[in-house]
């Protein structure tokens, strides 16, 4: 089994910053891409940012220049630094990882989500 645990969400004023973390644990052989998604009330879940095992990144247009995704492969952890937060960034943020398990099974694994609320 593989588990993802997110942390770092909370309530913040517009213009401020938050840093989300997501740590993977369990029967992990390797992790390919890792990413952050978000889902606002009444909306579909959307990709915010993703990073490959080699460090290549891509971002949603709405967060380019404000958010930065990074990862620590030794710790099986991915981060999302969110700066200049806006009220429209309010959502539940989910971590996702494509994990190759010790049994050589490829799993797309999700975390439980962490709430980010930006007050204007």
Question: In a few lines, what is going on in this structure?
Answer:
By secondary structure, the chain is mainly beta.
Describe the structure.
The chain is an all-beta fold and 120 residues long. Helices cover 0% and strands 62% of the residues. Strands 2, 4, 5, 6, 9, 10 and 11 form a seven-stranded mixed β-sheet that branches. A four-stranded antiparallel β-sheet has the order 1-3-8-7, with no helix packed on it. Strand 4 and strand 5 (46-51) form a beta hairpin. The chain is elongated, with a radius of gyration of 14 Å. The N and C termini lie far apart (40 Å).
Helix and strand element order: EEEEEEEEEEE
Mean pLDDT: 97
**Main pleated sheet:** 7 strands, mixed
The helical percent reads under 10%
Question: Topology of this protein?
Answer:
Elements: E1 2-7, E2 10-13, E3 18-26, E4 28-39, E5 46-51, E6 57-59, E7 67-72, E8 77-82, E9 91-101, E10 106-110, E11 114-119
Parallel strand pairs: 2-11
Antiparallel strand pairs: 1-3, 3-8, 4-5, 4-9, 5-6, 7-8, 9-10, 9-11
Give short descriptive properties of this protein.
mainly beta
